[in-house]
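Human
Can I borrow your eye for a moment on a structure tokenisation matter? Give me a protein, with the fold worked out from its sequence. Write it directly below this note and I will take it from there.

Assistant
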Amino acid sequence: MNDELSSTTKSALSNHFGDSTLVSNDTIAIATWLNSYRNRSKETIRSFSKEAIRFLMWVELRKGQGDSLLRGVTAEDANEYLDFLIAPQIFPTWILQKYGYSRQPFHGKGLCRESIRQAVIILNRMFSVLQNIQIGQHIPYVQLNPFVLVKAMPISQDFDTKKALTKEEWSMVQDTIELLPRNTKREQFHYYRTRWIFQLLYRLWVRRATLSSLKMGDFFPSSDGWMIQVTSKGNKTASLIASTKLMSALMEYRFALELPELPTPNDSRPLVSTLYNPYMPLSPESLYAVCRVIYRATAERVAETHPYTAEKLRKAGPHTMRHTGISHAIYSGVSLTHVNKQAMHANIQTTVRYVQAQKDIMMDEFEKCD
């Protein structure tokens, strides 16, 4: 999916970013709202922008073309949009082209409860800001917030574990990676890079946008072993543990790049690069595509013997490895305090949910009973 805006929209956002005195259409209104988050991470702004533009595309599909469609959105529209997110329709080509999408933004399937809840929260915030943006003579850009009465869908207690892979399923994914061809230099690099991506996601628990921004020089040695400096969602910065297994995977990847085993403090190479330029970081979208190819290939390979696993893998994405790594660490006995810190969870209750929902582990324990 292309999350970037069209050149026309991007130009408008750039020219009017944060200038509330010039608010006269939806594009500038959204830019002004996004500017209120200018000190937040790029990942946050990207996520907020994506939700706003997808909603604007839906409004235009529903109401027809216009420059100020957000001003006429009602509570009924907001509730119907929730229904749309559960079972999205196909956007016509002209809307996709207008907003810079080369493919359908929802991949032909509805969002999960967690994603719908997040969309409601973001759009609620956007309309609250738009109520305080004036278009002249003390007239607000929108009169009401249509999402204020829309109840965000609650997240079930066990949604995290459903996304996590069991150890057997994780082994299946790794087996698929080992089956990648290595006949040419390009194929060899693709193989080592794919292994490195999955090891990073599984052992470091970072999101794909964060992973795309990391550099080799972010690794550093400490008295306790190797660490890596990470700036994640919400501009949170932390020094995370780089385990021995992660460092071994790093050395293998650097060997494939014909680099020394360990990085230096000023190494500006991206942690994961493109195939053609070692100084060009792989984008979050490309990271998503690499993971999806491996998951789909694994699903096809095991579909006959493990149909439920295959269905699970067809829905998996990069974030699946974050859930998997956290779940496996807890199962292996790592303390919740240490997991919470490494996962950069804002609240220990988020970490606790992984314990509460590990039904597969509970089943293993019961199977041990005589």
About this structure: Confidence is low (pLDDT under 50) at residues 1-20, 155-161.
